[in-house]
Amino acid sequence: MKTHGASYSQDPNDFFSYETCDDSFTGNSWVGYCKNCDSPYESNSFCTCGGLTGCKCKQEAKKQTPSALANTAYVGEAVSYGYGCKAHDANEGDCQGATDTSLGEAKDWCVDKWCIVDTTSCNLMTREVTYSLDANDYLSFETCDINFLGNSWVGYCRTCEAPYTSNSFCKGECTSPTEAPTPPTPTPTTAAPSPPPVASVQFSMTFATVIYSQLVQNTAAVTSFKNNIIDALVENGVDRNTIKGVLLKSGSVIADVIMQALANSNVDALRSIINSNTAAIETATAQKHNADSSITAVSSGTITVSSTLTSIQFPAGEMRRRRTRRRVGGDDPRRRRSRRRTDTHETDFAPKMALSSGAALLVFLVGFLGARQF
After folding, report:
1. Number of domains composing the chain
2. 219-235 vs 264-290: helix axis angle to the nearest 10?
3. How many CB atoms lie within 10 A of CB 112?
4. Which is more confidently placed, 217 or 311?
5. Domain extent at residue 216
6. What's the Cα-to-Cα distance from 146 to each of 74, 180, 221, 361, rounded to whole Å?
């Protein structure tokens, strides 16, 4: 069974379990109410359900009945399908044995975390869960992953109807900063030479006073935080269409703006724009954050910004999720538009950073105009 550290005693070796003392234990506010623990504890222990403040996961762990759709028998076999943030379909049903689960591929949704939410108290776009029989089951990917960049099931674009245009993904023609990734190029029968590394620049902005753990629990603050930095960049010479997405990580608040160009001259021009406007970008971003009550509420003091600019290289055309996932092959499942997922997303060219408490780390993936969209 899953154990938890006993924080009320000084002995670091003290761990406890509720489940071992009560066969009918149904969770509590300390350990959680959902059976969404990581393996091997999902069948015998409770964990926190998850979800952002504006759209919490439903707090229960009931057994589900599968719908009449094909390949959904596992829904009834799962301990508690859909309840609590988890990749509930990973390596199950249509996702069994999947290999095309990288961002932008047909089965990328198979490895994304999601949970069932209450539509009456969720400020994110929700969709019907068609694999369970309960008509009241609706899900959200975004609430389980603040860095969710969409998937083939819900779409990759900020084209949802109001009021979800700024915080949720839908299908359609992309018209906002987060664009759909280019579908993977089929592997040629004769191996082609590997493309040379692409020169890029990374502009990192650090916000030391923002408290990450509080920021990510507030969907309004997260949306404002990302939009403020995008607006500051645009106001100072960065084309809005080049910004590919925003990722949050803990540590300090760092906005890694990564821009890719096909020609070195474009990279040089981009470096020049950033170098010439660094102070203005920092000032504009700080002013926007300090004037935003949703952000100052999760800061320990006046928000200031520091930044660095570096050149980086990464393999051309790569934009994949760093995920420990299982994969799926075969045709897309025939379903109504609803479904799942969200888990932490990084790109192959983004630096790996350990999660820790403190201020937030924000990563922007940017492609320069004229560069191939990925």
Report:
1. 1
2. 130
3. 30
4. 217
5. 198-324+350-366
6. 28, 17, 11, 12
The answer to the question of residue 315 being in a domain is: yes
Q: How far apart are CA 87 and CA 104, in angstroms?
A: 17
The pLDDT of residue 90 is 95
Does 319 fall in a domain? Answer: yes
Does 91 have pLDDT greater than 90?
yes
Contact 69, 128 (CB under 8 A): no
Query: Quick check: is 255 in a domain?
Result: yes
Mean pLDDT score of the chain: 76
- CA pseudo-torsion sign 208, 213, 216, 219: negative
Contact between 196 and 318 under an 8 Å Cβ cutoff? The reply is: no
Strands 243-251, 253-260: pairing is unpaired
Contact of 122 with 114, CB cutoff 8 Å: no
Query: Which residue from 144, 29, 112 is spatially nearest to 339, judged by alpha carbons?
Result: 112
For the record, the structure tokens of 99 come out as 């290999």
Checking if the pLDDT of 215 tops 70, the result is yes
Residue 55 pLDDT exceeds 80:
yes
The predicted-structure confidence for 184-214, as pLDDT tens digits, reads as follows 444 444 444 554 554 566 777 788 898 888 8
What are the tens digits of pLDDT across the range 137-183?
A: 999 999 999 889 899 999 998 889 889 988 899 988 764 444 444 44
Picking from 257, 258, 267, 305, the residue whose alpha carbon sits closest to that of residue 283 is 305
- Of the candidates 213, 220, 203, the residue with the CA atom closest to the CA atom of residue 278: 203
What's the pLDDT score for residue 120? 92
Q: Residue 54 domain-assigned? A: no
pLDDT in tens, 244-273: 667 777 766 776 666 665 444 466 777 788
CA atoms within 13 A on the CB side of 14: 6
